[in-house]
Design goal:
By secondary structure, this protein is an alpha+beta fold. The chain is built from three helices and seven strands. A hairpin with a 5-residue loop joins strand 4 (about 60-70) and strand 5 (about 75-80). It has helices at about 40-50, 55-60, 100, and strands at about 5-10, 20-25, 30-35, 60-70, 75-80, 95, 115-120. The strands form two sheets. Strands 2, 3, 4, 5 and 6 form a five-stranded antiparallel sheet that branches. The protein has one domain (about 5-120).
């Protein structure tokens, strides 16, 4: 079980509301169903069936990364492998995932650095 980490700026009040992202599974209608953690496999089995093949699971599951728009600071979830990197709010392509911001300039104040802090809470 991974620890829950928080991500925030060491200069201003910028903080990510999420801690990385969430898994999802695509149902027969093409809808992305969020798999609550822990127990992602239970949701996958509910949607794809208990006997789903590994190929089917790989084709129909994905990971939503927590992202921030560097232009308007809108935070949202995006599958960076499948989805276009574009802000759902202002259409900017200046998108970073939470992991990509760690150790880099804060998207809000541009002066601080985004740090990953272990909260000590285990999932
Ligand atoms: Zn934006
Ligand atoms: Zn900042």
């Amino acid at each position: 079980m991974p620890p829950i980490n928080a991500f925030w700026c060491n200069r201003c009040d910028f903080v990510f509301h999420g801690w990385g992202g969430t898994s999802y599974v695509i149902d027969d209608a093409g809808e992305r169903i969020i798999c609550p953690h822990p127990g992602e496999r239970v949701t996958v089995a509910l949607v794809l069936g208990e006997n789903a093949s590994q190929e089917l699971i790989e084709a129909r599951t994905g990971f939503h990364s927590h992202c921030v728009c560097a232009d308007c600071l809108h935070q949202f979830q995006l599958d960076v492998k499948r989805d276009e990197r574009r802000c759902q709010h202002c259409n900017s392509r200046n998108i970073q995932t939470v992991r990509e911001t760690v150790g880099k300039a804060c998207p809000k104040c541009k002066e601080g650095t985004v740090e990953e802090i272990e909260t000590g809470i285990m999932t």
